[in-house]
Structure formats: structure tokens, C-alpha cells
Write a structure and sequence with these properties.
The protein is mainly alpha-helical. The chain has helices at 19-35, 47-51, 58-75, 91-100, 106-110, 113-122, 124-127, 131-134, 136-146, 159-176, 191-194, 219-229, 249-257, 260-266, 273-282, 287-313, 316-345, 353-364, and strands at residues 6-11, 40-45, 83-86, 151-153, 184-186. The strands form 2 sheets. The chain has a 3-stranded parallel β-sheet with strand order 1-2-3. Strands 4-5 form a two-stranded parallel sheet. Helix 3 (58-75) crosses helix 16 and helix 9 (136-146) crosses helix 10 (159-176). The two termini are 36 Å apart. The structure holds tryptophan (TRP). Tryptophan (TRP) binds next to strand 1 and helix 9. Tryptophan binds at residues 8-12, 44, 46, 49, 140, 143-144, 152, 154, 158.
Length: 365
């Protein structure tokens, strides 16, 4: 077992990535990548997991594999420092999932709060719950352990998955001997970065609600989302009225995105967000000014991402090679873990002659 610092994280390719992904994880991944502190950084495009609730629509998942890789590359994930790979092309993960399924009870799986909420949201309670979807936390444990990852940067909603991974790893190691690395979740520190709401203030950005700002959206679309869909404080009718910054989605976004430097560039009347908020609360600061400031910050953030995306979009062959090479490396890594797991379980019949000797002894008795 390695004593290294290895990261594994991933996304389901069910749509293009949006600002919520950016502030909640992508930005951090780039920082981790550039810190030089890690022995390996693996980013998994979890298409198999996405298929657990999209079995009837593999085309959607396939389309979004390329979208997600483009999103990664455009935010600055560097294929020279990170391994970007596709889950379905890693057969070791399927085998590991199958063994791990025996280490978790269905009762335990049905208590996973994230999966429970997803079952509700998707209407599976009435329609019938796909067994694969029910068990996806087990496959996620396979993802993590196959890379010997000790660090798993994720959103808050993924904590129950890591908890299940802990239990499975603990149980595996107890039954078969120290084999798997115990992972640790790392979640964003900033409260609002953990869960950026949709532009309409609803809990989460989601495609079906039309409340996303995608990393690939053009400037016009972003502006329209902010001006058209962001409700501020319903009691803040006149500029001179005192306003609320809590639960005001414009300020929620500013909490997640703005730095003191942004004030220097776009709103020099204030030194920082606290000063700006104080003015809004007192009255005298208009919503238009706040939105314009936010749009400037969004543009500063998104414009370089868009430009980088355009470059990669013009060279899909290069993107394809990055994905293929990353996946080939990941095949090696995950196959080694599977071999270790089978050794630990002693079901590695064809590379361990001592098993044959045991069989011979058994039959001689
Ligand atoms: N379940 C994660 C999500 O919905 C995606 C994912 C799949 C993942 N495998 C993973 C995240 C392994 C971290 C580690 O966002």
C-alpha cells in the first residue's frame, strides 16, 4: 500500500459544467494541481455512474463526456499534471464494485441521504429504482480505492459517499488484511462556495430549472441570467430603502466570487464586500449597481475560460488524445489495485501456484 498523496475526484457527464462546479470544485482542483504537493491527481469522468439513471439515454452521456473534458481543459486542468480518464474504460472498477457489493447491506445503502434525495427527485420511488443506481455509492468506493486515493475533493453532498467508502474499506481490510487506502473527503472552506444556488435563488443549479450559468455560456447569456432571473430583496423597492443581503442571491454570488481586488477594478467606492453590504443594508445602494458589479466579476472569471474552450474546441483530436492517454494510464493503475485485491482475497488462481498446492493437499486428505 502506498504512503503517497493521491487525489481522485470526478464528475458525472450529464451536462456541461457550470459556475457551481467552478466555485465548488474546479477552481480548487486547479489550485491543488499547481501546488505541486501531490503524487498523482486523477479526474474521473464517471460515465458509468451517469448511466445508472440514464440507461435509456447513453447518447446524452456520450455527448457530455466531451463537454466535460472541454470544461476541464478550459478552466486550466493540465493534462501534464492530472490524469483525466473515462470510467467505463476501466474494467477493474467493475470488478471491484462487484466484490465491494458484498461488504455493504441493502439496509445501509437505503440510508444514504444523498441517494435518498436523488431517488425522490427522480421519481424512482414510484417508477422503480434501478439496482445500479441504488448501489452507485459502492461503485464510487471502487473509483476511489482503485486509484489508492487518500484525498477526495468533493462537494458537501458527496460526504455520505465517502462515509460509505470508509465502511467498505474498513471492512475489506478487516476481512482480507490491510489492502485498501482509507480515503478522506476534502470539501470547500467557504460556505457559499460549497453550494452555490441557481440564479433564481433555488438550492442548486440544475439544467431542468434553467437556473445555471454554464462555463461555456457567452457574455450575453450570462448577463441575461443575472438581470432577468436574479431576484434581490423584495422589500428593497427604492434605492434609498434599507435592503437585506442575507438570502439575496446577488450577494450570495458575491460572497462566493468577489475579492477585494475586484472593488479596485470595478467598484472603487468600497474597499471590500463588507463595506458594500453595509451600504446596501443602510439604503442608498441600488440593485442595478450590485448586478453590474457581479456581471463584471463573472465576465472577468468566465472570459478566459471561454477563450481557452474555443482553442480546444478547434482541436478535438488533441482533446481525444488527452482522454485516451489519461485513460490508458488509469487502466494500468486500477488493474494493479484489482490484482492486489484479488491477491488479498486469494482468488488470484492463475498467478498464485500456492493455491494449486493447497488444492492438491486438500484432495490428498
Ligand atoms: N458522485 C459524484 C457527483 O455526482 C461523481 C463521482 C463519481 C465522484 N465517482 C467519484 C466524485 C469519485 C468523487 C470521487 O458529483
Amino acid at each position: 500500500m502506498s504512503e503517497k498523496n493521491i487525489i481522485l475526484t470526478g464528475d458525472r457527464p450529464t451536462g456541461r459544467l457550470h459556475l457551481g462546479h467552478y466555485v465548488g470544485s474546479l477552481k480548487r482542483r486547479v489550485e491543488l494541481q499547481n501546488s505541486g504537493k501531490f503524487d498523482a491527481i486523477n479526474i474521473l469522468i464517471a460515465d458509468d455512474q451517469a448511466l445508472t439513471d440514464n440507461a435509456d439515454n447513453p447518447g446524452k452521456i456520450r455527448d457530455n463526456v466531451i463537454q466535460v473534458v472541454l470544461d476541464y481543459l478550459s478552466v486550466g486542468i493540465d493534462p501534464a499534471k492530472c490524469t483525466i480518464c473515462v470510467q467505463s474504460a476501466l474494467p477493474a472498477l467493475h470488478a471491484l464494485t462487484f466484490y465491494y457489493m458484498n461488504l455493504v447491506s441493502t439496509a445501509r445503502l437505503s440510508r444514504n441521504p444523498t441517494v435518498k434525495a436523488e431517488i425522490q427527485m427522480r421519481g424512482f420511488a414510484d417508477e422503480g429504482l434501478p439496482a445500479g443506481f441504488f448501489a452507485y455509492p459502492v461503485s464510487q468506493t471502487a473509483d476511489i480505492t482503485a486509484f489508492d486515493a487518500n484525498i477526495v475533493p468533493v462537494g458537501e453532498d458527496q460526504l455520505p459517499m465517502i462515509e460509505q467508502a470508509h465502511e467498505i474499506v474498513e471492512k475489506f481490510n478487516r476481512i482480507y488484511g490491510e489492502t485498501l487506502v482509507m480515503p478522506k473527503a476534502v470539501i470547500p472552506e467557504n460556505e457559499t462556495q460549497r453550494r452555490l444556488p441557481g440564479v433564481d435563488g433555488k438550492a442548486k443549479m440544475s439544467k431542468s430549472l434553467g437556473n445555471c450559468i454554464y462555463l461555456s455560456d457567452d457574455a450575453k447569456t450570462v448577463k441575461k441570467q443575472v438581470n432577468g432571473k436574479m431576484f434581490t430583496d423584495p422589500q428593497h423597492l427604492q434605492i434609498s430603502d434599507p435592503g437585506h443581503t442575507e438570502g439575496n442571491v446577488v450577494f450570495t454570488y458575491l460572497d462566493a466570487l468577489c475579492t477585494d481586488e475586484h472593488f479596485g477594478r470595478y467598484l472603487p467606492d468600497y474597499a471590500n464586500l463588507e463595506e458594500m453590504k453595509a451600504h446596501y443594508r443602510r439604503g442608498g445602494l441600488g440593485d442595478g449597481t450590485c448586478k453590474k458589479f457581479l456581471i463584471n466579476i463573472l465576465e472577468e472569471t468566465l472570459q478566459p475560460i471561454r477563450a481557452e474552450r474555443a482553442k480546444w474546441e478547434a482541436d478535438i483530436d488533441a482533446v481525444y488524445d488527452i482522454l485516451r492517454e489519461g485513460t490508458a494510464r488509469a487502466v494500468e493503475t486500477t488493474n494493479e489495485t484489482l490484482a492486489r485485491v484479488r491477491r488479498a482475497m486469494r482468488i488470484n488462481y492463475f498467478d498464485d501456484r500456492s493455491i494449486v498446492k493447497e488444492w492438491e493437499a486438500l484432495l490428498k486428505k
